[in-house]
Design brief:
- The complex is a heterodimer of chains A (about 400) and B (about 500).
- Chain A is of the alpha/beta class and about 400 residues long.
- Chain A has one domain.
- In chain A, about 30% of the residues lie in helices and about 15% in strands.
- An eight-stranded mixed sheet of chain A has the order 4-3-2-7-10-13-1-14, sandwiched between helices. A two-stranded antiparallel sheet of chain A has the order 5-6.
- The radius of gyration of chain A is 20 Å and the shape is globular.
- Chain A starts with 7 loop residues before the first helix and ends in a 9-residue tail after the last helix.
- With about 500 residues, chain B is of the alpha/beta class.
- Chain B has three domains: about 260 residues, TIM Barrel (Alpha-Beta Barrel), CATH 3.20.20.70; about 120 residues, Rossmann fold, CATH 3.40.50; about 90 residues, Golgi alpha-mannosidase II (Immunoglobulin-like, Sandwich).
- In chain B, the strands form five sheets. An eight-stranded parallel sheet of chain B has the order 1-2-3-4-5-6-9-10. Chain B has a six-stranded mixed sheet with strand order 12-11-13-14-16-15. Chain B has a five-stranded antiparallel sheet with strand order 18-19-25-21-22, covered by helices on one side.
- In chain B, strand 4, helix 6 and strand 5 form a beta-alpha-beta unit.
- In chain B, helix 11 crosses helix 14.
- The longest helix of chain B has 20 residues.
- The radius of gyration of chain B is 24 Å and the shape is globular.
- Chain B starts with a helix and ends with a strand.
- Classes of the chains: A alpha/beta (about 400), B alpha/beta (about 500).
- At the A-B interface, helix 7 of A face helix 14 and strand 20 of B.
Chain lengths: ~400, ~500
């Protein structure tokens, strides 16, 4: 039901009554709600990547209290959100399912101007090809790598899918109470940075419901060590290899909609995020890449920035038209992955539909990593209600023409 | 400009410089399907392929009025395929042939060649004799024919050229013929999701292209003209231009085939139709003005071994198709051409077409691997794994990769990961909807990398990484003036970035 341009979801997400009701309801599988940290989150409406994004990020960083002190003279690591190739006709990968290179360039330029000593662009580039580099992956998306390299005094690129420039993996423990893994072995760059940024894309995800800044962290796990993310993390079909921390309970639920959100929260615990940046200027709905059936490009015109990754994802989710406290079987966690796509042994008990994912923000909140409660988060810049682009309605072709 | 270039251009332009005293030589024929007349209507009525629109039917019926030749005034198309013989009443065929005779005479005066299309078997002697009387320059067989008929027609036609449009390309790779014409596909690209297929993150658009097909004929006879026949339906001007480019990139020519509605509009001098025709012609001109590119041999450090006697030609075709689509620069080697000298030019060999290599072949390939090469072999090599798709067996300074059950898609994908950029030689980035074709690069030659975009939307920021140091790179496209591209050098490689590719571009890199 739509009331003067405000969707049903607006009411769910924004009315104090609904929020209060939802906040009081325990998240499925989550532990007792903890009062996680709360930091301001900045929201901006940005029509296109051609805008002056450097100025925009400076404004947004100021709105969340400034980051100059944390960045000056420091090594900044930026985990950028890339994924598979493919294109929607007329769109680049950076438009729809990767973060956009101009966003990365602008952020690098601001960090450089704020005096960052070194900026490292980090992501698992993948591939077995001899000599393959992260820069090659970026070139495959049409990025101007040289422009990003020149945007600040010292910019490095590291493929964190293996050891990279390091001699050994770094052990990062989960100081909060872990769900699945107590620690992870990661590329050295995730330890050797003073200020860590998760630069995620605001898009749907076929299995997790949402990809924003928490989900973006999945790519920091090195396949060079763990072998195969699907079998080890998604499905838990094989245990982590010798030398990598073992999961706490190998007999725990293997269903990825239950398992992976918890692993993502563990990763966030192991490598806390100092700054979360969500790119939704152009994006996609219905999946995380154009290979997902039914997915399509969208132009939400959104940027969301915050110091706390959970707070930021919660606000980002709200600007996407979702209730950040949604439970299983509610959008966006009512997922549409064909259950036959799962290993059959995971589909237990038989009375479950296996078309859900647990809300990773609530799981993170429950272990004290940050609040997903919009009532507690100080949203600055454009109010959520004005910024909102309803992903679900757009996906279902239910959005008013002037909004889409 | 290198010294060899003007000489080659002069060779190709020779017929033009001699003046329009007759039809051009077959080597420079640019074919266009120019069907019409009462016979065309009659046989298509039988075949139930006649257009419903009366105005379009009328345009086809009157196609051989002299005015239609005016459409060719500013077009490189110089070889008309006209309706000549088809299943219909003898009287209709006679009327058609009289009409075509007059039209051919007028076409000849304009320096155009005229070939008669034969759609069904008949009296070979009569067909050939009638064609000779009409002074046709040749006959083109299109359709299903018993093998005896083309042979009889060739015999009867004497010196007149007879071209068969083959549905099965493989035999024609090795058959002697002055021109080879084969049925191709309508070039296009679609995402798997548009086809209702749930792909993987590594999935790329499904591209239909004839580039590999044209290339496959170059092994036996590199200079033989190759014509691609496909009638594209509901085509836009861009689709037509792409089809021209797709055939031309590797040196072939599309038999320009405009749909009935477009031809009817052209005949009526409709502005949008004329604009589409101008665009098609501009692509034909671009192709013909770079005829020298046809003389450049394919570039590639990967050799794909073809066995003309193989019983699995379809599988061999799939390797060629997928290697082209997956941007693996390759050259072809015949099984009989395997020797130490020919293999020295390669860094990797795909030998899955060799069902069971002979002892001599095995030794040759083993030596190639031990000298640092990569051999991709099928299970007949021995040592295939039981569970994994392939086993990598070290061999001296190189390796042999033995597949349990080689699948072209997997082999080509793996090949790109098994080889370094230097091994591949030319590596394009940001090209999911693009096929690249590299040629030249020999002593004193430029390295030419052609790129063809199969999406209607332009592609921006394509990077080419090429092994070696180059002094210049120049991008030419049919749409605008050539531009020099800035070079970046690193680790003995050169990179250039193409800012925007609409449809067809060629980067010429000089040392």
């Amino acid at each position: 039901m739509r009331r003067e341009g405000v969707t049903r979801r607006d009411w769910l997400a924004l009315s104090g009554l609904a929020l209060g009701a939802m906040a009081a309801r325990p998240a499925e599988g989550a532990r007792a709600v903890s009062a996680g940290p709360v930091e301001p989150v900045s929201v901006a409406k940005v029509r296109s990547y051609d805008e002056d994004l450097t100025t925009r990020f400076r404004q947004m960083f100021d709105q969340i209290g400034g980051i100059g002190n944390q960045v000056k003279g420091k090594t900044v690591g930026i985990k950028v959100n890339l994924t598979g190739g493919g294109r929607f006709p007329g769109y680049t990968a950076g438009d729809t399912h990767w973060v956009h290179p101009r966003v990365v360039g602008a952020v690098v330029a601001v960090f450089g101007a704020l005096g960052a000593k070194r900026i490292r662009i980090l992501e698992s580039a993948g591939g077995r090809k001899p000599g393959y580099k992260l820069e090659d992956k970026l070139l495959s998306g049409g990025w101007d790598v040289a422009a990003i390299r020149n945007a600040a005094p010292l910019v490095e690129f590291e493929d964190t899918n293996a050891l990279g420039q390091g001699k050994q993996y770094s052990l990062l423990k989960v100081p909060s109470k872990p769900y699945i893994f107590p620690a992870f072995q990661l590329n050295h760059s995730y330890q050797d940075c003073d200020f860590f940024v998760s630069l995620g894309k605001m898009k749907n995800h076929e299995e997790m419901g949402l990809t924003v800044c928490i989900k973006n962290l999945f790519g920091i796990t090195p396949m060079g060590l763990y072998g195969n993310r699907e079998t080890v993390f998604h499905y838990g079909q094989v245990q982590a290899p010798s030398g990598a921390p073992a999961e706490l309970d190998p007999k725990s639920n293997r269903y990825e909609g239950w398992r992976l959100p918890r692993i993502l929260v563990d990763i966030l615990g192991a490598r806390p995020v100092d700054l979360a940046i969500a790119d939704g200027i152009v994006s996609m709905v219905g999946g995380e890449g154009p290979w997902v059936l039914g997915s399509k490009p969208a132009h939400p015109g959104l940027l969301v920035v915050g110091r706390n990754c959970v707070n930021t994802d919660a606000v980002a989710a709200a600007t996407m038209g979702y209730n950040p406290r949604a439970g299983r079987h509610e959008a966006p966690y009512r997922v549409f992955k064909e259950p036959k796509g799962h290993p059959p042994e995971q589909l237990q008990p038989g009375d479950e539909t296996f078309q859900y994912a647990d809300n990773m923000m609530l799981l993170a909140e429950a272990v004290g990593l940050g609040s997903a409660d919009l009532k507690k988060i100080d949203v600055r810049g454009v109010p959520i209600k004005e910024a909102m682009f309803d992903y679900e309605a757009f996906w279902k072709n239910q959005m008013a023409r002037e909004q889409s | 400009m290198p010294g060899w270039f003007p000489r080659l251009m002069a060779l190709f332009l020779l017929p033009c410089t001699l003046g329009v005293s007759g039809p051009p030589a077959p080597e420079v024929w640019v074919p266009v399907r120019w069907t019409g007349g009462p016979l065309e209507l009659a046989w298509r009525t039988r075949a139930k392929t006649l257009p419903a629109d009366a105005a379009v039917r009328d345009a086809l019926a009157r196609w051989y009025e002299p005015a239609t030749l005016g459409l060719l005034e500013d077009s490189p198309a110089n070889c008309l395929l006209v309706t000549w013989s088809a299943p219909a009443d003898a009287a209709v065929e006679a009327e058609q042939q009289q009409l075509v005779k007059v039209y051919a005479e007028a076409a000849h005066k304009r320096g155009l060649a005229v070939l008669g299309l034969v759609y069904a078997a008949g009296d070979a002697s009569k067909i050939a004799a009638d064609a000779a009387r009409a002074a046709l320059d040749g006959l083109v067989l299109e359709g299903e024919f018993a093998p005896e008929f083309p042979a009889a027609l060739r015999k009867a036609a004497d010196s007149m050229l007879v071209v068969e449009i083959a549905k099965d390309a493989a035999p024609w790779r090795w058959k002697p013929a002055p021109i080879v014409a084969v049925a191709g596909v309508a070039p296009s690209a679609r995402n798997l999701s548009e086809m209702g297929i749930r792909g993987a993150p590594s999935s790329e658009p499904w591209i239909k292209s004839n580039i590999w097909l044209v290339r496959s004929f170059g092994l036996a006879s590199p200079s033989r003209p190759v014509w691609i026949s496909d009638q594209i339906e509901n085509a836009s001007a861009v689709d037509y231009a792409r089809t021209v480019a797709d055939a031309a990139a590797a040196g072939g020519r599309w038999i320009v085939s405009l749909d009935d509605a477009l031809r009817a509009k052209l005949r009526a001098r409709d502005a949008s139709a004329l604009e589409a025709w101008r665009r098609i012609s501009s692509y034909l001109k671009f192709a013909e003005s770079h005829a020298a590119w046809r003389a450049l041999a394919p570039y590639g450090n990967v050799g794909i071994v073809l066995d003309p006697a193989s019983t699995k030609q379809d599988l061999a075709d799939e390797y060629l198709n997928l290697a082209a689509r997956r941007q693996v620069p390759y050259r072809l080697v015949t099984r009989s051409g395997l020797n130490a000298a020919s293999l020295a030019k390669f860094r990797a060999l795909v030998t899955t077409d060799l069902d069971s290599p002979s002892a001599a072949e095995r030794k040759l390939l083993q030596d190639f691997a031990e000298n640092g090469g990569l051999v991709i072999a099928g299970p007949s090599w021995g040592g295939a794994p039981k569970t994994e798709p392939f086993a990598e067996v070290p061999a001296g300074m190189g390796r042999v990769v033995v597949y349990k059950d080689p699948d072209p898609e997997a082999v080509v994908r793996d090949l790109k990961e098994l080889l370094s950029d230097d091994d591949l030689g030319v590596v394009p980035f940001n090209v999911p909807s693009v096929i690249t074709f590299a040629s030249g690069g020999g002593p004193g030659q430029p390295l030419l990398v052609q790129l063809l975009n199969y999406f209607d939307h332009p592609v921006e920021a394509i990077t080419l990484r090429v092994a070696g140091k180059f002094g210049s790179a120049r991008l030419e496209t049919p749409e605008g003036a050539a531009v020099d591209l800035p070079l970046r050098e690193a680790e003995g490689r050169t990179e250039v970035t193409i800012p925007k590719l609409l449809l067809w571009g060629a980067v010429s890199m000089e040392y």
